[in-house]
Amino acid sequence: MDLNIHESWKPYLKDEFNKPYFENLMTFVKSEYQHQTCYPPSSEVFQAFNACHFNNIKVVIIGQDPYHGVGQANGLCFSVQDGIAHPPSLKNIFKELETDINKATPESGNLISWAEQGVLLLNATLTVRAHEAGSHQKQGWETFTDSVIKIISEKQNDVVFLLWGGFAKKKSKLIDSTKHTILTSGHPSPLSANRGYWFGNKHFSKANQILERKGFRAINW
């Protein structure tokens, strides 16, 4: 597994890359990609870091696992490749965007334009076997991505963290809330959204209001 990660991250993550757990993780991932069908494509495993550079982080959104269907995952949480049907959670994200900021649902579910504006779309686990949800959990990815969250918390200021659902909310303990803003809500999955825990959170307009108040440019969601 090639460590295809943008230079801006390397000074902050180089110690992590040299730890035994990370070396074991890379051995595991390399073997999985050689012997199984895995997602996202190997060139896009670190896409979240390549599309959103360290010194450009304004917002962090935390997901759990990549999509495990054919051609869906592109290395950004909740995002899919161009031309792929929108999964249920992404449909609900777009519905909330429409009611919150009057943004029409886009044709493509590829969220790379968010990432390029400073939204880190970080899955806790960066790889998965085809059609086997959670199959690469507890191999070291969570240790790595928890470290990423801690490093952002320590080295950056005024980042807006959007924590959707119980899994993401647990990451709040890694974040210094005196330096950063944490917004929480239910998960956009139908199970949570249809119970009233997602719709109406207005996280997109709230994040932009916070960014503008701090003197940053708002995100064009």
TrEMBL record:
<dbReference type="InterPro" id="IPR002043">
    <property type="entry name" value="UDG_fam1"/>
</dbReference>
<keyword id="KW-0234">DNA repair</keyword>
<dbReference type="InterPro" id="IPR005122">
    <property type="entry name" value="Uracil-DNA_glycosylase-like"/>
</dbReference>
<dbReference type="InterPro" id="IPR036895">
    <property type="entry name" value="Uracil-DNA_glycosylase-like_sf"/>
</dbReference>
<keyword id="KW-0326">Glycosidase</keyword>
<keyword id="KW-0963">Cytoplasm</keyword>
<comment type="function">
    <text>Excises uracil residues from the DNA which can arise as a result of misincorporation of dUMP residues by DNA polymerase or due to deamination of cytosine.</text>
</comment>
<feature type="active site" description="Proton acceptor">
    <location>
        <position position="65"/>
    </location>
</feature>
<dbReference type="GO" id="GO:0097510">
    <property type="term" value="P:base-excision repair, AP site formation via deaminated base removal"/>
</dbReference>
<dbReference type="GO" id="GO:0004844">
    <property type="term" value="F:uracil DNA N-glycosylase activity"/>
</dbReference>
<dbReference type="InterPro" id="IPR018085">
    <property type="entry name" value="Ura-DNA_Glyclase_AS"/>
</dbReference>
<dbReference type="Pfam" id="PF03167">
    <property type="entry name" value="UDG"/>
</dbReference>
<keyword id="KW-0227">DNA damage</keyword>
<feature type="domain" description="Uracil-DNA glycosylase-like">
    <location>
        <begin position="50"/>
        <end position="211"/>
    </location>
</feature>
<keyword id="KW-0378">Hydrolase</keyword>
<protein>
    <recommendedName>
        <fullName>Uracil-DNA glycosylase</fullName>
        <ecNumber>3.2.2.27</ecNumber>
    </recommendedName>
</protein>
<dbReference type="GO" id="GO:0005737">
    <property type="term" value="C:cytoplasm"/>
</dbReference>
<comment type="similarity">
    <text>Belongs to the uracil-DNA glycosylase (UDG) superfamily. UNG family.</text>
</comment>
